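tool_call: predict_structure(chain=1)
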Amino acid sequence: MQVLSRPPSGSPALVLNADFRPLSYYPLSLWPWQEVIKAVFLERVEVVSTYDQVVRSPTFEMALPSVVALKHYVAQDRAPAFTRFNLFLRDSFACQYCGAGEELTFDHIVPRSRGGRTTWENIVTACAPCNLTKGGRTPREAHMFPAKPARRPTMHQLQDLGRRFPPNHLHASWLDYLYWDIELEA
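tool_result:
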């Protein structure tokens, strides 16, 4: 991972909840600079840190925010949406049958042809070869069992899992608000 001293491409701002924790770790809660300027003018966020870069209009000048905090707390206890990305995150981007991290798909534990539904409790991440090998069989019939039980994660569990996957580039002004073990690069 590289820590940047210049603004990252597009000059996004890290968005913190009102408690100064990121709204999301994976993907990291970043807003484009245009959205941040709009939120500042609408008084929805407080500027915590800025880049050395400035935006100007004929009558106004402002340093681009690098970190902003929402003025009103957004509860993080809602149930996470069932999406392919969230499923892969729950399963740490690894096939639950062999541990591979490439060619990921999702597999119905109880096949749809046998009445299995598309729910958190019946879907696991599987690589394409394992998914093909298991086919329309149950784990018992295929002698293929998921590494861990399929469960509905909470938002907090997904956030904790997301901390295991820091982005490749972080701006130095964000580091005080992120909780990863980061080695600074020269």
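agent: The first strand starts at residue 2 and ends at 4. Proceeding to next step.
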